[in-house]
Amino acid sequence: MSLGFTIPEKGSLDLLSLGAMVHRLDPGIIPFRKATRFDVHVSGGEFNVAANLSDCFKQRTGIATAMVNYPIGDLIAERVRAMGVRPFYKEFAHDGVRGPNMATVYSDQGLGVRAPVVFYNRCNEAAALMKPGDFDWKAIFGQGVRWFHSGGIFASLSETTAELAIEAMKAAKAAGAICSFDLNYREKLWKPQGGMKRAHEVLGAIVENVDVLVGNEEDLQKGLGVAGPEVTAKSKLDTSVFLGMIENVVKKFPKVKVVATTLREVHTTNHHTWSAVAWVNGKAVSAPTCELDVLDRVGGGDGFAAGFIYGLLSGADPEEAIRLGWAHGALMTTFPGDTTMATLDQVKAFASGGSARIQR
Q: Does the model's pTM come out above 0.90?
């Protein structure tokens, strides 16, 4: 099956992401209002994709992001190194009191009928201060980059981050890289920027440069303003709404050749039904459906994106790529934290019909 584009065969980096780094404070199943301790996870939607591709899929990846010279920045930079991701930092000095800061995300895990709760402190965030001209894209892409990735979370942070994302994508396209974008519409993040109307303007301008789009029907409607068909999904796993919107997506954004999303039916916080679907240059491909016992749902979508992109980068056909993304996203929910602890063998085994039987 033709993808509608050609991925460069070689490059010093298989993938470069542009986005914001955060640290997530996680008290486990205890709500924050009663928490006395928590774990720290280094994260960021765009970083997670690069980290997963590096650590699990053994790809050469990089992250262009903001870094602040204080202990939280040191903590985050250590995890970037540990995941094997090459950093391209716009560095900021910390004044010891007011910042600028590395963003904090607070997220408990919930349990059973109690859903996880996520909230943010992105006040005076260094990443929001990044702007066009902060990176020498000509030099970076001149080294050879096969794939460029960014997302809607980064684009929502400020007017200048959206402009930087467009600048980077245009440079990536000029250098021959494939561009992907995860819409990741977050109402809480867009509200201070002007809400859904502003999201339509910003994300629409970015997606004009995109080859591969990741997002579900809600992302497409709220993030891009794409009209949906008059069809009611029988369940969260019904692909008719998503596939029914694709005609409107490609009509509005003709450069988009692939649109992919996860499908998740949440029965309780710890029991999900999981699948995935993609539209690839005119044809639909679907992953199997499985039942998940979820430890930590954060990062599952980024896990899917990483596995799906790996499949395409490695020359797999779309049917295999969607299964790799589905399998890696499923495994991600069995680990604490936002980035992968899976091995490529585990992903391939699950994608090909493996089970949870003990491995000896």
A: yes
